[in-house]
């Protein structure tokens, strides 16, 4: 196992902000590492340092001599007029057949491969960039928020690509569902320190919380013991007969130390607008067509959304989800047909075109005062601003100096101060960190009004959506199933596309081809596969139970040496579980 990249005693700061404070980590070959941490912790800065685009204040980054880094570029690398195939050939120096073969892994063919690449949506352009990465044959991929603005189908394609990629990856993402599907290990950056954890993101977060709770309990025990010793010392040190005992207890007291527990960073706490629940139809469309003067996106749209519903708009990028939302909110006129909102509907809109066009000369407080009702007090405004991390001097910040994430939170704060009983949200998770997205999900579940929204965050969609509306191939229809059913259908389509490509690669004829069509051989293989799957499931259940027992024991353990031993046993079990679960997934996929 070769170490491809090593970070040693790394220090980096900007003014008063310390990003790296003696950070250390090693990235080895064939490991997929999820890189997590709060917005502003320094993750993107560390990636630039790894790439050599930025310098450390002190410390070093050591590269293996055979390291080949592939970095998913966020900027536009395309030339005017060139096709995706032209770009891939120019960027990689590979022949057209090789570029076409790799592009096929990302469903790039026909006009998507041969038409102007600049006319493709952001998601399709990301597919082109990923194909370009693969053509350079890197042994370490650095991906910075790769799922931003990607539709579900492209996210699934990217997951499948990473699953089959046999080299190392470092993936920065706030999308926990994506990290869980792609990364076997986790690296966390917090308060300048890097923490490596040999397990998936969910296990890491559980361990992190359990470790904190354990330290709190141990500290409580230590503090109680300290008080007991101090009382004994105060009572007995002046007496000649017990002075020696008091001195002994003093030495014991000096050795008793509590574990330092980091104070929690401020968290977002979103309170939804207080509205009265309503019954009946919130919005109805009749023979609606949406689009633009020179291009109709979808026709014959017959939708009906009830009050209290949380309707998720789904579909691939470029199919018209945002066009539909803009038409429903009347910021874009319909091509034909009608839209009818129910009586007394107050509509609040959250969309990129809203939070990128805020009045830049206003302060945070001035903007929120303007957005709120006349009877809202300054104290109420400050409370809402504070819940979204605009506290103290931050409310006097000019909007022009706010980051994308801060502007997005400010728009949310403006919505919360209103009395909107309809919320229309276009990609609310973009530019928000995972804690804010979680807080928003909780608020929307509590909200008594109607929500119409679109999002590429699968975790968010699964939690929120009560109904699904699909925009696809020029039509908009209610999807007959929940979001899990929609994801299943997307995975099936992607898998069938991959099977078709793999089948085309296999040579026709010959003994192997004939054997593959032997029904008796296929039945024997299926029986063997099912038997192995059942054996693996029994092993997984047994190891899960052992791991749970060890975790329970760790939570009540106050002996540091024993706790370390238990932690090591849990890690060993985790690795064994991961190996067995990987094999189980492979067998199930083959069987399916």
Question: How is this structure best described in words?
Answer:
The structure is a single chain. With 592 residues, the protein is an alpha/beta fold. It folds into four domains: 3-204, Rossmann fold, CATH 3.40.50.300; 205-255; 281-346 and 419-490, P-loop containing nucleotide triphosphate hydrolases (Rossmann fold), CATH 3.40.50; 530-592. The chain is built from 20 helices and 19 strands. It has helices spanning 43-51, 84-92, 96-104, 111-114, 122-135, 152-164, 176-182, 201-236, 243-255, 321-328, 352-355, 364-371, 378-387, 404-416, 434-446, 458-464, 483-505, 510-516, 519-555, 560-591, and strands at residues 3-14, 17-28, 32-36, 58-63, 69-71, 140-144, 168-172, 185-190, 193-197, 281-292, 295-301, 304-306, 310-314, 336-341, 347-350, 422-426, 450-454, 467-472, 475-478. The strands form four sheets. It has a six-stranded mixed β-sheet with strand order 5-6-7-3-8-9, with helices on both faces. Strands 15-16-17-13-18-19 form a six-stranded mixed β-sheet, sandwiched between helices. Helix 15 links the parallel strand 16 (422-426) and strand 17 (450-454).
């Amino acid at each position: 196992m070769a170490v491809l990249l090593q970070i040693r005693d790394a220090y980096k700061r900007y003014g008063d902000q310390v990003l790296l404070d003696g950070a250390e980590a090693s990235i080895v070959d064939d490991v997929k590492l999820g890189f997590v941490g709060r917005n502003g912790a320094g993750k993107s800065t560390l990636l630039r340092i790894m790439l050599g685009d930025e310098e450390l204040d002190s410390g070093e980054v050591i590269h293996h001599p055979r390291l080949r880094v592939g970095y998913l570029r966020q900027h536009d690398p395309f030339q005017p007029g060139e096709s995706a195939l032209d770009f891939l050939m120019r960027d990689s120096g590979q022949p057209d057949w090789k570029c076409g073969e790799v592009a096929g892994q990302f469903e790039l063919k026909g006009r998507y491969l041969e038409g102007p690449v600049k006319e493709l949506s952001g998601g399709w352009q990301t597919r082109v960039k990923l194909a370009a990465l693969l053509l350079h044959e890197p042994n370490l991929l650095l991906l910075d928020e790769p799922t931003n603005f990607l539709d579900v189908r492209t996210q699934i394609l990217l997951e499948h690509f990473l699953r089959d990629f046999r080299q190392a990856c470092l993936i920065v993402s706030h999308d926990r569902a994506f990290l869980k599907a792609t990364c076997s290990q986790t690296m966390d950056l917090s308060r300048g320190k890097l923490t490596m954890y040999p397990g998936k993101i969910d296990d890491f977060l559980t361990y992190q919380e359990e470790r904190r709770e354990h330290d709190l309990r141990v500290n409580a025990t230590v503090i109680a013991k300290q008080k007991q010793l101090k009382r004994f010392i105060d009572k007995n040190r002046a007496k000649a007969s017990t002075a020696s005992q008091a001195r002994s207890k003093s030495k014991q007291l000096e050795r008793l130390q509590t574990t330092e527990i980091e104070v929690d960073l401020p968290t977002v706490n979103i309170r939804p607008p207080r509205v009265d629940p309503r019954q009946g139809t919130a919005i109805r469309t009749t023979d609606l067509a949406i689009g633009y003067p020179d291009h109709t996106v979808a026709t014959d749209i017959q939708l009906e959304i009830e009050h209290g519903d949380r309707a998720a708009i789904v579909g691939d990028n470029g199919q018209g989800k945002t066009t539909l939302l803009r038409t429903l909110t009347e910021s874009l006129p319909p091509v034909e047909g009608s839209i009818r909102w129910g009586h007394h509907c107050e509509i609040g809109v959250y969309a990129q075109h809203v939070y990128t066009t805020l009045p830049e000369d206003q302060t945070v407080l001035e903007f929120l005062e303007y957005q709120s009702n006349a009877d809202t007090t300054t104290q109420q405004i400050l409370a809402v601003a504070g819940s979204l991390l605009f506290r103290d001097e931050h409310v006097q910040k000019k909007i022009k100096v706010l980051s994308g994430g801060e502007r997005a939170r400010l728009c949310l704060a403006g919505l919360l101060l209103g009395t909107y009983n309809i919320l229309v949200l276009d990609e609310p998770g973009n530019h928000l960190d995972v804690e804010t997205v979680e807080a928003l999900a909780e608020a929307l579940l509590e909200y008594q009004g109607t929500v119409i929204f679109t999002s590429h965050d699968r975790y968010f969609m699964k939690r929120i959506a009560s109904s699904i509306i699909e925009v696809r191939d020029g039509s908009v229809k209610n999807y007959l199933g929940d979001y899990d059913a929609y994801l299943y259908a997307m995975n099936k389509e992607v898998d069938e596309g991959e099977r078709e490509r793999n089948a085309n690669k296999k040579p026709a004829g010959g003994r192997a081809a004939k054997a593959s069509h032997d029904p008796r051989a296929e039945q024997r293989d299926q029986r063997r596969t099912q038997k192995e799957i059942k054996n693996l499931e029994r092993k997984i259940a047994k190891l899960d139970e052992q791991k749970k027992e060890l975790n329970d024991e760790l939570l009540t353990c106050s002996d540091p040496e024993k706790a370390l031993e238990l932690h090591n046993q849990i890690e060993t079990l985790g690795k064994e579980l991961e190996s067995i679960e990987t094999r189980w997934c492979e067998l199930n996929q083959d069987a399916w």
